[in-house]
Amino acid sequence: MRHRAHQGGWTFVELLVALGVSVLLVGSFYAIFLVSGSASATGLTAIEVSENARIGMDRMIRELRNATQSTISIPASGQITFQVPGNGNVIQYALGGATGTELRRTQNGTTTVLCNNAQSLQFSPAPFSGRVITMALRVQKTAASRQVVGKSFSGRVRVRN
């Protein structure tokens, strides 16, 4: 019988090493995919939270700026009621809803939700000036990645009327 001196092909050890390296590469790509998906979900949640809160703050500031100073009432830190001249409508901003995390605007018995996921809302007259109101809104939401995203907004409004 003749034996060939050299046979072509891979040895079992070489195949195991190649398989191990391949598994490591695929696992690394999968981990990168998971991290980027999580970061994307967190980023989208942060954008959503910021956008909704900013819309609510802008509307509150705009309407409060036009309020009649003598009609502004802050019965609690997280609530404000005032009247806008011209139409005589009473407007109220407060947190509400089943979980108390909705920023709500109520006018003539009609309630509109301006922002969800609100954790706190505060109004206070600025010291030494009854015409300036400071406000602060804190929103917070848990992203799909289970990371909590929170933003704080604040503003000062000088009442014109």
Structural category: alpha+beta
Per DSSP E runs of 2 or more residues, the count of β-strands stands at: 8
The helix/strand order is HEEEEEEEE
Mean pLDDT: 81
Radius of gyration, rounded? 29 Å
Strand order of the biggest β-sheet = 1-2-3-4-5
Overall helicity: 25-40%
- Share of residues in strands: 35-45%
Query: What is the terminal-to-terminal distance?
Result: 111 Å
Q: Which regions contain 5 or more consecutive residues with pLDDT less than 50?
A: none
Shape: rod-shaped
Largest sheet: 5 strands, antiparallel
DSSP helical segment count:
1
The quaternary organization reads as: single chain
Features:
single chain; 161 residues; alpha+beta; five-stranded antiparallel beta sheet; three-stranded antiparallel beta sheet; 1 helix; 8 strands; rod-shaped
Detailed description of the structure:
The chain is α+β, with helices and mostly antiparallel strands and 161 residues long. Helices cover 34% and strands 36% of the residues. It has one helix spanning 12-65; strands at residues 73-76, 79-83, 90-96, 102-107, 110-115, 118-125, 132-142, 148-158. The strands form two sheets. The protein has a five-stranded antiparallel sheet. The protein has a three-stranded antiparallel sheet with strand order 6-7-8, covered by helices on one side. The radius of gyration is 29 Å and the shape is rod-shaped.
Question: Summarize this, please?
Answer:
This protein has 161 residues and is of the alpha+beta class. The chain contains one helix and eight strands; from the N terminus they run αββββββββ.
